[in-house]
C-alpha cells in the first residue's frame, strides 16, 4: 500500500503546519501530515515530544490552543468544528488515558455515541447483537456493559474498550494514542486484531501513535514518522521502525533540542 | 436533639447544645449563631419570630392496610418522646401544632404497601405540624412524606424504630417556588433497628431540613441519603446529625446536589458524633455538590467528632465543583453533543443515589423529576 497516489474510495486527513500551545507554551511547532484512506501511519517519538498533544488538538480538547495551521478532513476544516461535530464528521481518537465517568454505564454510553454518530438510534436488537459480537471479538466479558465507563477498568480493559468503540463507531480516520501501552502480549494481540479489522475495508485511515515498535509487528504501518520536539523530524517506511528499535530516539532528541 | 433528656448533662459536642420544648428557651436568631449563619432569616416569613398559625396546610395519609393512622391532640403522651427540639423554629413548631399524625406499624407487621403522607400547602399563612411514625419490634414499613403546594411550614417528624424493625422513609420536598419549610426529622433506633432515609429536595424558596439519628441499643443501622437540585434564587439547606452514643451501630450519610442559576444556594452540614461509650461505631458521611453555572453557591461543612479510641470505621468527605471538562470531552469525542453529554454526566452523578430507592415506581418518579430539572 505504499503507492499512496492511487485513487481509493474513502477519506483524507490533512494536517498542515499545525502549531499548538498549552498554557501559552508552544508544544507543536509546525506538523505536516496527510493520512489517506487505506493508509496506516505510525507516529513514533520519545515521551514529551508532543504526540498526545497532536492527538488531542485534532480532536479538539479545550486545553490545547491551536495557534496556527489547519486540519482538514475531506477538505472540511475540523478546527472550525466542536469536539462532537468532529467525531460525527468521522474522526475518532482512542485515548492514551481514557477517563472514568462515574454513573454512566458502558452500554448507555455506547448507545448514545452510536446514535449520535449515525444520526439515528440503532435498533435495539441490532445494537445488542453488534455490541455482543464486538465484545466477544475483543474478549471483553459481557458483564462489562453494565459497568460504569472506565471506572475501575484495568489498563487493558480500558484499551479494549477504546477499540470496541472504534469498531462500533466506524470512523473515517482513527487516531490511536498509545493504544498499545500497558498491554500484555495477549491483550496486545487482541487489540491489534481489532485495529486490523477496522482497517481491513481499505476505506479508513489510521494514525497510530506509539512509543514502542512492538505493536507494529501486529499492525503493519505503511509509513513511519519520527516525532521529536513538537514536529515530524523524519519519515520513512516500515524499515524506519526497525532502525528506531535498534538505535532509539536519542539522535533525534538531540537534533530537535 | 432529644439526646440529652435522659442524663441532662451538657452534650460533649458544642454543635447542638440545647434541647427544649419551650420556644422561650431559644432567643430569636440574629443570623450570627452557628446554626443559623447560612440561613437567610428574612426569607423565613416569621417562622423564627413566632408567626401565628393560620392552618395553611392539609395533611392526608394513605396508609398500608397493616398500618394504623391516628390524628391526635397535643396531649398524646407518645409525642415528643424520641425528640426534643434543638432550635427555635423546631420548638415553635412543637408548641404550635394543633393535631399530630401518629402512624403505627404493629409488632412484626410487614406493610404491604407504602404509607403516603401528603402535606399540601394552600398558601394561607404559617402552619405547624407534628408527625410520629412508630414501628413496633420486628415491623417493616415504607413511609413516603410528600410536600407540595405553597406554604410557610415548620414541623417535627419523629421516627421511633423498635427492636429489629426496618423503616424506610422517602421525603420529597416538591414545594411551589414561594414555599418556606423548616423541618426536623429525628429517628430513634432501638437495638438492631434499620433506618433508611431518602430525602429529595427540589422545590421551595427556602427549605431547611434537619435529619438526625440517635441509637438506643447496639446493632442500629442508619442510612441517610439525600438529593437536591437548586435553581436560581433557591436556598436548600440540609443539616444532618448522627449521634453515636451506643456501641456497635452504623451510619452512612450521602448527600448530593446540583446547583444552577444566579443565587442558587445549597447548604449541607454533616455532624457525626461518636461518644466515648460508642465503641465499634462504623460511620461515613459524604456530600458532593455540582455547580453547573456561575452565581451558584454551595456551603458544605462536615464535622466528625470522635471521642472514643475504638471505632470500626469513621470517615467523611465533602467536595463541590464544576462538571469535569475531561468527562464532557470524552463523551463529546464520541460524537455526543454537549448538552447531552452534560445530562449524561449529571445523571451519572445522581445515579448511585437513585438506585437506593427500592420502590420502582417511586424511583422512576424521582428520576423523572431530576430529568425535568435538567431540562430547565
Ligand atoms: N494538558 C497539559 N497541560 C500541561 N502541559 C501539557 C499538557 N499536555 C501536554 N503538555 C506538555 O506538552 C509536552 C508534550 O506532551 P505530550 O503531548 O503528552 O507528549 P507525548 O504524548 O509525546 O508523551 C510535555 O512537555 C507536556 O508536559
Ligand atoms: Mg502521550
TrEMBL record, chain A:
Keywords: ATP-binding, Nucleotide-binding. SUPFAM superfamilies: P-loop containing nucleoside triphosphate hydrolases. Residues 13-254 form the ABC transporter domain. Transmembrane segments: none annotated. Pfam families: ABC_tran. One of its GO terms (molecular function) is ATP hydrolysis activity. Belongs to the ABC transporter superfamily. Ycf16 family. This is Fe-S cluster assembly ATP-binding protein. It comes from Streptosporangium saharense. The lineage of its organism: Bacteria, Bacillati, Actinomycetota, Actinomycetes, Streptosporangiales.
UniProtKB/TrEMBL annotation, chain B:
GO terms for biological process: iron-sulfur cluster assembly. InterPro entries: Fe-S_cluster_assembly_SufBD, SUF_FeS_clus_asmbl_SufBD_core, SUF_FeS_clus_asmbl_SufBD_sf, SUF_FeS_clus_asmbl_SufD. SUPFAM superfamilies: Stabilizer of iron transporter SufD. Coiled coil: none annotated. Residues 122-349 form the SUF system FeS cluster assembly SufBD core domain. It comes from the Bacteria. Belongs to the iron-sulfur cluster assembly SufBD family. PANTHER family: PROTEIN ABCI7, CHLOROPLASTIC. This is Fe-S cluster assembly protein SufD.
Amino acid at each position: 500500500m505504499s503507492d499512496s497516489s492511487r485513487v481509493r474510495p474513502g477519506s483524507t486527513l490533512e494536517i498542515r503546519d499545525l502549531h499548538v500551545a498549552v498554557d501559552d507554551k508552544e508544544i507543536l511547532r509546525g506538523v505536516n501530515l496527510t493520512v489517506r484512506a487505506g493508509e496506516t501511519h505510525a507516529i513514533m517519538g520519545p515521551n514529551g515530544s508532543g504526540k498526545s498533544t497532536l492527538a488531542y488538538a485534532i480532536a479538539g480538547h479545550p486545553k490545547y490552543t491551536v495557534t496556527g495551521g489547519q486540519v482538514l478532513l475531506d477538505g472540511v476544516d475540523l478546527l472550525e468544528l466542536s469536539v462532537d461535530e468532529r467525531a460525527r464528521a468521522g474522526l475518532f481518537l482512542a485515548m492514551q488515558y481514557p477517563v472514568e465517568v462515574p454513573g454512566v454505564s458502558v452500554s448507555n454510553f455506547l448507545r448514545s455515541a452510536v446514535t449520535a454518530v449515525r444520526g439515528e438510534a440503532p435498533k435495539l436488537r441490532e445494537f445488542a447483537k453488534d455490541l455482543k459480537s464486538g465484545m466477544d471479538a475483543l474478549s471483553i466479558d459481557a458483564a462489562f456493559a453494565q459497568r460504569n465507563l472506565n471506572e475501575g477498568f484495568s489498563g487493558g480493559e480500558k484499551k479494549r474498550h477504546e477499540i470496541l468503540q472504534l469498531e462500533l463507531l466506524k470512523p473515517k480516520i482513527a487516531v490511536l494514542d498509545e493504544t498499545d501501552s500497558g498491554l500484555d502480549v495477549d491483550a496486545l494481540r487482541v487489540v491489534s486484531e481489532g485495529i486490523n479489522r477496522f482497517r481491513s475495508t481499505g476505506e479508513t485511515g489510521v494514525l497510530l501513535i506509539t512509543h514502542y515498535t512492538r505493536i507494529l509487528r501486529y499492525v503493519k504501518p505503511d509509513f513511519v514518522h519520527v516525532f521529536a520536539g513538537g514536529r515530524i523530524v523524519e519519515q520513512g517506511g516500515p524499515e524506519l521502525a526497525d532502525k528506531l528499535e535498534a538505535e532509539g530516539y536519542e539522535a533525534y532528541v538531540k537534533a530537535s533540542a | 436533639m432529644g439526646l440529652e433528656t435522659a442524663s441532662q448533662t451538657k452534650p460533649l459536642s458544642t454543635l447542638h447544645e440545647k434541647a427544649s420544648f419551650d420556644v422561650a428557651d431559644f432567643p430569636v436568631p440574629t443570623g450570627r449563631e452557628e446554626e443559623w449563619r447560612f440561613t437567610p432569616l428574612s426569607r423565613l416569613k416569621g417562622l423564627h419570630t413566632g408567626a401565628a398559625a393560620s392552618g395553611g396546610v392539609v395533611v392526608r395519609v394513605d396508609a398500608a392496610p397493616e398500618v394504623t393512622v391516628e390524628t391526635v391532640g397535643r396531649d398524646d403522651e407518645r409525642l415528643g418522646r424520641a425528640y426534643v427540639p434543638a432550635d427555635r423554629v423546631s420548638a415553635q413548631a412543637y408548641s404550635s401544632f394543633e393535631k399530630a399524625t401518629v402512624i403505627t406499624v404493629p409488632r412484626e407487621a410487614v406493610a404491604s404497601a407504602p404509607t403516603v403522607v401528603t402535606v399540601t400547602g394552600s398558601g394561607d399563612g404559617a402552619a405547624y405540624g407534628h408527625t410520629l411514625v412508630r414501628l413496633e419490634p420486628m415491623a417493616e414499613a415504607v413511609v413516603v412524606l410528600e410536600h407540595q403546594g405553597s406554604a410557610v411550614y415548620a414541623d417535627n417528624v419523629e421516627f421511633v424504630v423498635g427492636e429489629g424493625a426496618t423503616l424506610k422513609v422517602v421525603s420529597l420536598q416538591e414545594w411551589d417556588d414561594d414555599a418556606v419549610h423548616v423541618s426536623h426529622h429525628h429517628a430513634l433506633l432501638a437495638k438492631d433497628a434499620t433506618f433508611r432515609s431518602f430525602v429529595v429536595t427540589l422545590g421551595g424558596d427556602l427549605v431547611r431540613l434537619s435529619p438526625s439519628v440517635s441509637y438506643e441499643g447496639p446493632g442500629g443501622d442508619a442510612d441517610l441519603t439525600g438529593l437536591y437540585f437548586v435553581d436560581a434564587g433557591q436556598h436548600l439547606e440540609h443539616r444532618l446529625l448522627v449521634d453515636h452514643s451506643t456501641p456497635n451501630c452504623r451510619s452512612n450519610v450521602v448527600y448530593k446536589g446540583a446547583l444552577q442559576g444566579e443565587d442558587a444556594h445549597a447548604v449541607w452540614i454533616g455532624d457525626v458524633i461518636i461518644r466515648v461509650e460508642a465503641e465499634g461505631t462504623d460511620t461515613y458521611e459524604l456530600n458532593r455538590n455540582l455547580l453547573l453555572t456561575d452565581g451558584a453557591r454551595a456551603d458544605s461543612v462536615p464535622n466528625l467528632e470522635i471521642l472514643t479510641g475504638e471505632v470500626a470505621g469513621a470517615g467523611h468527605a465533602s467536595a463541590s465543583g464544576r462538571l469535569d471538562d475531561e468527562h464532557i470531552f470524552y463523551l463529546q469525542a464520541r460524537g455526543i453533543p454537549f448538552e447531552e453529554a452534560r445530562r449524561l454526566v449529571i445523571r451519572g452523578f445522581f445515579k448511585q443515589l437513585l438506585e437506593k430507592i427500592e420502590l420502582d415506581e417511586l424511583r422512576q418518579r424521582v428520576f423523572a423529576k431530576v430529568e425535568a430539572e435538567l431540562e430547565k
